[in-house]
Amino acid sequence: SVPPYVKSTTWAYQGNGQPVSVDVGENRSVALTFDGRAILQGGDATDVLTTLDGMITAARAGDGATILAGITSLNNAFGRVSQTLSQVGRDQASVDDGNSRLAALRLAAKARLSQAEEANMPEAITRMNRGQMTYEAALGAVAKTSRVSLLDYLK
User: Fold this and answer.
1) What is this structure's pTM?
2) Contact status, residue 16 vs residue 34, Cβ threshold 8 Å
3) pLDDT, tens digit, for every residue of 140-152?
């Protein structure tokens, strides 16, 4: 595991900048990772960590202009972090929505399965008995009409 930033004399980003996302539905994906450099530096000249180091040095030296520039850079970083958090919130809402839909589909499937498995036993027995009586009546009718005796063959 490599830390995203390392400081020797300056801060150095060690990440690859490739966001990783995962599909959570048809034509829907959510980000699992974000580019650390894009968040901590964005379009600014230096990253937030270097800015903070510079502000510490400026505060010790009483350099107000550098501190003001650092505050502007920190405000920019705050905006980038807020945008990233908003994206995380949207992605989380998308996953929660998908989970809710899956739960509803699972519940509907269980209800259909339960309905199919839990037949009304007295009604099923009555229908089976009616079917059996109809079958027996049909067999009896066929037997009476097709009675052939030995005398019928002698004619």
Assistant:
1) 0.64
2) no
3) 777 776 666 656 6
